[in-house]
Design goal:
The complex is a heterodimer of chains A (117) and B (116). Chain A has 117 residues and is mainly β. Chain A is 0% helix and 48% strand. Chain A has strands spanning 5-7, 10-13, 19-24, 31-37, 44-50, 53-57, 65-68, 75-79, 88-95, 107-108, 112-116. In chain B, 0% of the residues lie in helices and 52% in strands. Classes of the chains: A mainly beta (117), B mainly beta (116).
């Protein structure tokens, strides 16, 4: 297991620009989650995929945010027309399918820190 | 609805002293409970989890937590703090979906400082 990976680790952008982040889950994990963490806060749920299907989206996910997982493997999170309030750490997590030994656990990547100037 | 409350945003202990980080949860269904640790500019690492088996759960790095349904608590303890324990700790809850997880609801975190 190589763990969950995220790219890039850091992104600095100007307000109004679009950004895209990538998450590669642990191999064969069919469930993938995105969270956002602002300074001094715990992570907040954004969205959840089971295989390629996006099954839940938080109200935090405005229409400027879109996430995809086209082949049920890696996922991308795009933010359009970034605002300063989007500055945060974006965390990705994955978990294996039900029936496996650790299906109750989410494994987190290192995160992508976004700074919007 | 589920929620988590972590009492004490900052806790400071001396090296070798007992660590106690408090977590209370609210859930209308049987919960799964987790403690994660986060080092600066890193992701979250699982310390331990309660998933309706033993109420006293042992995790990595000498940490343990006890699920107390009557008190709706899941406090994290370690008998003797080490300098390397300095980090931010998050308690999280999710619903028991019969062996699978859904979204985690996190507390606001407790920053643990360890003094030499």
């Amino acid at each position: 297991d190589t763990g969950v990976s995220q790219d890039p680790r850091h992104k600095i952008t100007k307000r109004g620009q679009n950004v895209t982040f990538r998450c590669d889950p642990i191999s064969e994990h069919n469930r993938l989650y995105w969270y956002r963490q602002t300074l001094g806060q715990g992570p907040e749920f954004l969205t959840y995929f089971q295989n390629e299907a996006q099954l839940e989206k938080s109200r935090l996910l405005s229409d400027r945010f879109s996430a995809e997982r086209p082949k049920g493997s890696f996922s991308t999170l795009e933010i359009q027309r970034t605002e300063q309030g989007d500055s945060a750490m974006y965390l990705c997590a994955s978990s294996p399918r039900p029936g496996t030994g650790s299906a109750d656990t989410q494994y987190f990547g290192p995160g992508t820190r976004l700074t919007v100037l | 609805a589920q929620s988590v409350t972590q009492l004490g945003s900052h806790v400071s202990v001396s090296e070798g002293a007992l660590v106690l980080l408090r977590c209370n949860y609210s859930s209308s269904v049987p919960p799964y409970l987790f403690w994660y640790v986060q080092y600066p500019n890193q992701g979250l690492q699982l310390l331990l989890k309660y998933t309706s088996a033993a109420t006293l759960v042992k995790g990595i790095n000498g940490f343990e937590a006890e699920f107390k349904k009557s008190e709706t608590s899941f406090h994290l303890t370690k008998p003797s703090a080490h300098m390397s324990d300095a980090a931010e700790y998050f308690c999280a809850v999710t619903m028991n979906y019969g062996g699978a997880t859904n979204k985690l609801i996190f507390g606001t975190g407790t920053l643990l400082a360890v003094q030499p």
